[in-house]
C-alpha cells in the first residue's frame, strides 16, 4: 500500500518529508482552490516545489481548472494532476495536451457515486475516492470501495487518521491519501507526520 500526503504548503515540512528515510510515494499541493487553508498561490508554489523530489511524485490538486491555470503550471515540477469536478471529456483533453498522469477524484456520499469511476477508468492512472467535503476531511463508508473492480488503481481519502491501524485500508485500496489528521491547529505537524510514516514503514515490512 502506497501513501500520498496532501496539502503541503511550506518548505520546512516538504523538506522533512522528502528527506525522510521512508518517504511517501506522492505529495499533493493545492494549486487553484483558495477556499482551502492549504492553498499555495502560484508564486509561492513555483519556489516551493522547485527542489530535488527524489523518487516522490508531486501532485497538483486542481478543482475544475481553467485552461489559463493549466497553462501557468504546465512547466512546474508536477508528475500528476489530481482533478476534481472535471468531466471525462475534459480530463482526456488535459491528459493529451499536457502529457501528464491523471488522478481522477470522485466524491462519494453513497453507492451510486462509486459507480462514476467507470467513466474515468480508461483515462486515469489512479481513481481517488474522496468524501464530499473537499478541504474538510469528511468521511464516507470506505467499505463501498469493495464494489470497485480490482483492476482499478485505487486511492482513498476522507477522515483517515495518522495513527489508524493500516490493515483495514490495505484490504480495500492501493494508496491512502492523508492530510487533515497530520495537522495541529490547522498546520502540518511534523511529529504526526513522523508517526504516520513510521507506521507505514512498519506495516510494509510486516506484509
Brief characterization of the structure:
With 207 residues, the chain is of the alpha/beta class. 30% of the residues lie in helices and 23% in strands. The protein contains eight helices and ten strands.
CA distance, first residue to last residue: 10 Å
Write down the domain tally: 1
CATH class: Alpha Beta
Rg over CA atoms, rounded to whole Å, is 16 Å
In the predicted model, the low-confidence regions spanning at least 5 consecutive residues are: none
H/E element string? EHEHEHEHEHHEEHEEEH
How would you sum up the global shape? globular
CATH architecture: Alpha-Beta Barrel
Helix content: 25-40%
Number of strands: 10
What does the main sheet amount to? 8 strands, parallel, barrel
* Content-based structural category: alpha/beta
- Kindly identify the CATH topology: TIM Barrel
In what order do the strands lie side by side in the largest sheet?
A: 1-2-3-4-5-6-7-8
Beta content comes to: 15-25%
Can you put this structure into words, describing what you see?
With 207 residues, the protein is an alpha/beta fold. It has one domain: Aldolase class I (TIM Barrel). It contains eight helices and ten strands. The strands form two sheets. Strands 1-2-3-4-5-6-7-8 form an eight-stranded parallel barrel. Helix 4 links the parallel strand 4 and strand 5. The termini are close together. The model has no long low-confidence stretch (mean pLDDT 94).
